[in-house]
Design goal:
By secondary structure, this protein is an alpha+beta fold. 52% of the residues lie in helices and 17% in strands.
């Protein structure tokens, strides 16, 4: 699929999440999610997706919503799936040599964003020892994506930057009346 038609995301995100679903809910869980998404997206098949191909962001939202409806997952589980994705993402792994700490991970966040999404923009608001903030603009698609992204950012800090105690929260959210989303990071060095 082309990256120029509407809000899109990379297939790699689906692939890594499918592995997490299998780990937590088994092949039957993944089948349930796939069938649910397939009702709206008849050609949806995570097994044949290519990591570097672009897919509609709405398909991504439907995929995450299906995890909630079919598997009974709550926001905490969606956060954990996001965290796991950062730990197993081929895109993140390609950047691993750049990351020595959370501050470097934050520095590269805008570039990483553009590898995964063709919509929204990440800006660095703060990047100091022990804390940082990322601003996400032009990305008002679904609150489930905010939950997932907070988990993803947590996973980047925890695994790639080796900060086991990193905490990530969404301080501002477009789905709660803010102009943009702000993800705040705190960790001990």
């Amino acid at each position: 699929m082309s990256s120029g038609i509407g809000p899109m995301c990379k297939g790699a995100i689906f692939k890594v999440n499918a592995n997490y679903i299998r780990k937590i809910a088994g092949d039957d869980g993944l089948r349930k999610v796939t069938e649910n998404v397939g009702r709206k997206w008849p050609h949806f098949d995570v097994r044949v997706m290519k990591e570097k191909d672009w897919f509609p962001l709405q398909m991504r939202i439907d995929f995450l919503d299906a995890c909630k409806s079919e598997l009974g997952w709550d926001d905490k589980r969606i956060f954990l799936m996001g965290s796991d994705a950062a730990q197993h993402s081929s895109i993140i792994m390609s950047f691993i040599s750049y990351f020595l700490n959370v501050n470097k991970a934050i520095k590269y966040a805008p570039e990483l964003w553009n590898h995964n999404y063709n919509t929204g923009k990440i800006e660095i608001l703060e990047n100091e020892k022990g804390n940082g903030k990322l601003k996400l603009t032009d990305f008002k698609h679904s609150p489930i994506l905010c939950t997932y992204l907070a988990g993803f950012f947590h996973g980047v800090g925890r695994t790639v930057a080796k900060a086991a105690d990193v905490k990530v929260s969404e301080e501002k959210c477009v789905h709660k009346g803010a102009e943009y989303c702000v993800f705040a990071f705190k960790w001990d060095e």
